[in-house]
Fold this sequence. Notes:
The chain is mainly alpha-helical. The chain has six helices and no strands. The longest helix is centred in the middle third of the chain and has 14 residues, at 42-55. It is globular and about 45 Å long. The N and C termini lie far apart (38 Å).
Amino acid sequence: xxxxxxxxxxxxxxxxxxxxxxxxxxxxxxxxxxxxxxxxxxxxxxxxxxxxxxxxxxxxxxxxxxxxxxxxxxxxxxxxxxxxxxxxxxxxxxxxxx
Length: 98
């Protein structure tokens, strides 16, 4: 069984989904993730970006730079000039403005 299949199976469990979406205070989790994403330690950065890639289709091929100092740096990355953002990148940018 691949890692992606294991994650899909894990996220299909209703008890876990309920716990993560209803029992953990969202504001506290949001603040924690904001703090955590700015940690500039290579091991934390690499593990965080790897987990992000496991849960989404993260495409870094259009980024101006290929090395990031933190997950936050990766999240707010600049695109190469002349490349239009994808719909997913537009949605992520809109989420940051809320």
